[in-house]
From TrEMBL:
InterPro entries named among the record's database cross-references: 4-carb_acid_sugar_kinase_N (IPR010737), 4-carb_acid_sugar_kinase_N_sf (IPR037051), NBD_C (IPR031475), NBD_C_sf (IPR042213), OtnK (IPR050007)
Occurrences of domain Four-carbon acid sugar kinase nucleotide binding (ranges): 260-414
The protein's Enzyme Commission number: 2.7.1.217
Gene source species: Methylobacterium currus
Pfam families the record matches: NBD_C, SBD_N
Residue ranges of every copy of the Four-carbon acid sugar kinase N-terminal domain listed in the record: 5-229
Gene3D superfamilies, per database record: Four-carbon acid sugar kinase, nucleotide binding domain, Putative sugar-binding, N-terminal domain
Name under which the protein is recorded: 3-oxo-tetronate kinase
GO MF annotation list: ATP binding; kinase activity
Family membership: Belongs to the four-carbon acid sugar kinase family.
Entry function: Catalyzes the ATP-dependent phosphorylation of 3-oxo-tetronate to 3-oxo-tetronate 4-phosphate.
Catalysed reactions, as listed in the record: 3-dehydro-D-erythronate + ATP = 3-dehydro-4-O-phospho-D-erythronate + ADP + H(+); 3-dehydro-L-erythronate + ATP = 3-dehydro-4-O-phospho-L-erythronate + ADP + H(+)
Domain of life: Bacteria
Amino acid sequence: MTLALGCIADDYTGASDLANTLTKAGLRTVQTIGVPADDLALPEVDAVVVSLKSRSIPAEEAVARSREAAAWLNARGAGHLLFKVCSTFDSTDAGNIGPVTDALRVDAGEAVALVTPAFPETARTVYLGHLFVGAVPLHESPLKDHPLNPMRDSNLVRVLARQSRAEVGLIDLATVAQGAEAVSAQLDALAREGKGAAIADAVLDRDLAVLGAAALTRKVSTGASGLGLGLARALVAAGRVAPAAAESDLGKPIGGPAACLAGSCSQATLGQIARAEAAMPVRRLDPARLLAGEDEAGAALAWAMERIGDGPVLIASSAGPDEVAAVQAQYGRDAAGHAIEAAMARIAEGLVARGVRRLVVAGGETSGAVVDRLGLPAFRVGPEIAAGVPVLRTTDRDMWLALKSGNFGGPDFFADALRLMP
Ligand SMILES: Nc1ncnc2c1ncn2[C@@H]1O[C@H](COP(=O)(O)OP(=O)(O)OP(=O)(O)O)[C@@H](O)[C@H]1O
Ligand SMILES: O=C(O)[C@@H](O)C(=O)CO
């Protein structure tokens, strides 16, 4: 297999978002969970998205895992490596976007890497280095209250510089408007000034096409699905990939019981859970009881088993910012997060052991914990449920999944997803 594009995603929902974007742009794409084992049979594809769970782990571990993924992708001839990060740049001052970008860039022998989280389709735009989520700057958006990485600075040149060894520059919209050659020349100029990364502005899809073409002249770039779209378009335009229609037949219907799990505390997910109450039974986990050692997971599983024969169910730990802050103050941010993720993974395992083959999970870390516990190796990409969220079909067994990024999806996301999982 010779890959046109190798991708390393820092969480599993982000990986499926990117796999969805690449598929829609005509690249035959597969999403793997972790670095694939040598004997994993993969279809012939243009792009592989290796999903890591590296967004919120110590930087040196994130670097080591990303390097391992890069080595696997490079061994399959990847012409370009994209490090897929969140479109809201989720990270802390300790990393991991800066350290991983530095490491991949240096390993590839590049002086500077283009970085942009812009994804206009989901209303993430970058102007003069400032990230906007819809109509508000990042630090005024709900991301300011993220349970693991509250984003309180919208100036990404500053944010990335705090995480990076090298200095960070800017490629502004005026330069992007002049086209790929101007962007490439600006990258060279920034490299001469000693900059190791450049935040690139992008407001419209056409800006992404320019950035993709410029990024493709180097071996490594960092961005969200928007940059993936730009790279895919550039690969097709350069004749390096013959565009393929998305697979319409991902296999026979599976049917049977279905369940949804939500660990994301994003505003979008909280709204979707509230809406789901009208469509299916919803059980809310009590994080305080769970963290005090009560068997909340066992109780939720028993609750689900009483209802699942009649239709889908939803189990959610999600809570608003005040409740999250109270739990974190008592148990610590990471300990609380990990304990809740572990409970979700246990519930997923129990549901699958009892026959669930259609599973929707909301939240990147939550999805990571669930998919790891289920031991799923790779996914083929099915139809799009909402911008950034495809239906996935496991390559090694008959199972449908949807891994939803916290902020993505329409108000009726859970019902919308299940409708596309026959
Ligand atoms: N009630 C709660 N109190 C404190 N932490 C919670 C609670 N419910 C969930 N969590 C934790 O919050 C974190 C949510 O992160 P997750 O990545 O799953 O969602 P997200 O960040 O909204 O999604 P994405 O990364 O896709 O944008 C997880 O670690 C989860 O265990
Ligand atoms: O880019 C995004 O917003 C998503 O794919 C994601 O990474 C959320 O975890």
